[in-house]
Amino acid sequence: HSSTAAGVAGVIKMVMALRHGMLPPTLHVDTPSPHVDWSSGEIELLTEAQKWPASERVRRAGVSSFGVSGTNAHVILEEAPVEDPTPAEDTGEPNPPAVVPVLVSARSEAALRQQADRLRAHLTARPGLSLLDVGFSSVATRAQLERRAAVVASDRAGLLTGLESLAAGEPVDGVVEGSSVGGKAVFVFPGQGAQWVGMAVELWDSSSVFAESMAACGEALSSFVDWRLEDVLRSVEGAPSLERVDVVQPALWAVMVSLARLWRSYGVEPSAVVG
Predict the structure, then answer these.
(1) What is the CATH number of domain 186-274?
(2) Which pTM was predicted?
(3) What CATH number is given for 100-179 in this structure?
(4) Average pLDDT in the 46-70 region?
(5) E strands along the chain, which residues?
(6) Which distant-in-sequence residues (6+ apart) come within 8 Å of 154 by Cβ?
(7) What is the CATH number that goes with domain 3-78?
(8) pLDDT per residue over 18-47, tens digit each?
C-alpha cells in the first residue's frame, strides 16, 4: 500500500485515460457486488477496455479516495483544452529573464560548500537545463537540511557564478547563507468521529500520569454531567454510549487533555495544543 500517496494512483490512471482516449478495465472484480442494484441506473463496472475518444463534449472524470480514518477526497479531472497551433507572434523583443532562487542545503558548512560545487559541475556538464527547472527541483525534490544557502540568479551565468562563490566560501551578491531554526511542536487532536469503544482504557490502566489526568478531568466534569467518565470509557452496564454527542464531546476533551499531559511527562513540551 502506498500510504498517504494512495489516492495519487487513481489520479494518474485517469490522466492517462484522458491522454490516450481509453478507459481501462476495473481490476480484480470478477462478480459485481450484490449490494448494488446495477439495473436501476446507468452505472456499470468496466470489465474490458473501452474507447473514450475526444468529442464536442468535454470529457471529465471523478476520482474518489477513502481513507481508513474516515477522510474522503474527490477530485474532478477535465481534459486539457486544445492548444492553438499558431505560434506566438515574435515581437523581436527578448523576454525579461526571471529571477530564480536555487536552494542548497547540507548537514555542515563544509558539506554545503561541496554540495554547491557538485551542483555547479552538474550544471556545467548539462548546459541545456532550464534555470526555472533547476530552481523548482532544488525546492520540491531535495531534502532541506540544517545548513542552507540560496543562490538568486536571473540567468545561467549568474547561477554558476553564485555557486562557485558559495563553494569557495566567498561572499557575493545574490548568495545568502544561514542555518535553519528548530521548529516548534504543536499537538493537534481530532474532533468527534475519532472515538471508539474501549478508547483510552489501555493507557488508563498502564500509565499513572494518564490515569491521574483522566481522574482529574472526570472530577471536573462531575458537576455538569450525571455519568462517570471512567464508566463510559469502560462501557460499564448502565453507562451512556459514546454515540451521544453530550457524552462523546466531554470524553474526547478528557482524553486529549490527558494525552497532552502524558507527552509533557516524556519531555515533549508543545508550543500550542489544538483540538
Answers:
(1) 3.40.366.10
(2) 0.42
(3) 3.30.70.3290
(4) 88
(5) 22-23, 50-51, 60-66, 72-78, 100-106, 147-153, 175-179, 186-188, 272-274
(6) 97, 98, 99, 100
(7) 3.40.47.10
(8) 999 999 998 888 788 889 898 888 888 888
